[in-house]
Amino acid sequence: MFFIIHSLVTSVFLTALGPQNRTTHFVTEFVLLDFHGQREMQSCFFSFILVLYLLTLLGNGAIVCAVKLDRRLHTPMYILLGNFAFLEIWYISSTVPNMLVNILSETKTISFSGCFLQFYFFFSLGTTECFFLSVMAYDRYLAICRPLHYPSIMTGKFCIILVCVCWVGGFLCYPVPIVLISQLPFCGPNIIDHFVCDPGPLFALACISAPSTELICYTFNSMIIFGPFLSILGSYTLVIRAVLCIPSGAGRTKAFSTCGSHLMVVSLFYGTLMVMYVSPTSGNPAGMQKIITLVYTAMTPFLNPLIYSLRNKDMKDALKRVLGLTVSQN
Q: What domain range is 232 assigned to?
């Protein structure tokens, strides 16, 4: 499904933005400064990001393979987790490869169309992640608060419907804001002091102020962030209330352990996301904004496999079985 959406949207955006690039905008490309500094520091940073990226692909890829190959994990909880790991692979790939190329490049340029394509996929995948975290919280709510009804509600068919809604919904949210921003006149300068095409730096480069477009985009961002977040908050409020009613300490510990990994991921992802897009960041230095963005674009996808695999016995056993099977076949 992701590949179908990717190909369709790419062709549409290239068609829509390509001709306008020559007729409406003076700027034909942007310069992404990323983490500029001395050459030695650039080399160290490149090595660190490359290792982080490869480990992220390896960790999330292992989870995807474990969920796919181990029939014991063909349950709604692990189907959601497998899709989430697959999403993380594409989420980090929407920014990090281009950032690695820019670190080694002398020009550090990205085309006008390429910038907005990166913008689209980066924010669409981030929105899809918000939706998946909300659905995963709902799954935990059903498992703990309505255990007897869980098998009849969270059926395989309903789980697949939720997965499709997350993917399709995430990719349908951002065309309007991106089209609005892309229609602004960009007549120079074209230097973005960031490693991604972000709405804040793009608004700063526009030749005219567009308060209405900024209001629409930031309101939209807030809705995308707070909608799923409030859903997660509601689910875990009911979960905590139900867990506290469990008489035995062992039962409460087991119930909390099933939610602990997900809560850690939610806290890490939403904490940095809200600092970047909900709290006022105009007074923050560009370097701080880059670090915050790097946390939720690169560090979070890297940590997620560690959080889920190290705290989940079934996942650890499945990974051992899959790795053992691979080794024995070789």
A: 35-312
DSSP 89-155: HHHHHTTHHHHHHHHH-SS-EEEHHHHHHHHHHHHHHHHHHHHHHHHHHHHHHHHHH-TTTHHHHS-
322 falls within a domain: no
- Mean of the pLDDT values across residues 20-42? 68
Let me know if residue 24 belongs to a domain: no
Residue 6 lies in a domain: no
For residues 225 and 147, give the distance between their C-alpha atoms in angstroms, rounded to a whole number: 29
Joined tokens for residue 58: 């390896």
d(C-alpha 178, C-alpha 180), whole Å: 5
Which H/E stretch holds residue 32? strand 29-32
Least reliable range by pLDDT among 14-28, 75-89, 257-271: 14-28
User: What pLDDT is attached to residue 160?
Assistant: 95
Q: Which residues pair with 129 in a beta bridge?
A: none
Whole-prediction pTM: 0.84
Whole-number Å distance between alpha carbons of 6 and 170: 12
What span, in angstroms and rounded, lies between the C-alpha atoms of 252 and 243?
Answer: 6
Q: Write the CATH number for 152.
A: 1.20.1070.10
What is the distance between the terminal CA atoms of the chain, rounded to a whole angstrom? 31
Query: How many domains does the structure of the chain reveal?
Result: 1
Return the structure tokens found at 148. Answer: 């007897």
Distance CA 231, CA 115 (A): 32
- Express each pLDDT in 244-285 by its tens digit: 777 776 667 766 666 777 778 888 888 877 777 666 544 456
Rounded to an integer, what distance in angstroms lies between the CA atom of residue 168 and that of residue 1?
Answer: 9
Q: Mind listing the pLDDT tens digit for each residue in 181-235?
A: 888 888 878 888 888 888 888 888 888 888 888 888 888 888 888 899 999 999 9
Does residue 330 sit within a domain? no
Question: What confidence score (pLDDT) does residue 245 get?
Answer: 79
Pull the structure tokens for residue 265.
Answer: 């991921």
- What integer is the mean pLDDT of 15-39? 63
Calculate helix-pair angle for 175-182, 2-23, nearest 10 degrees: 20
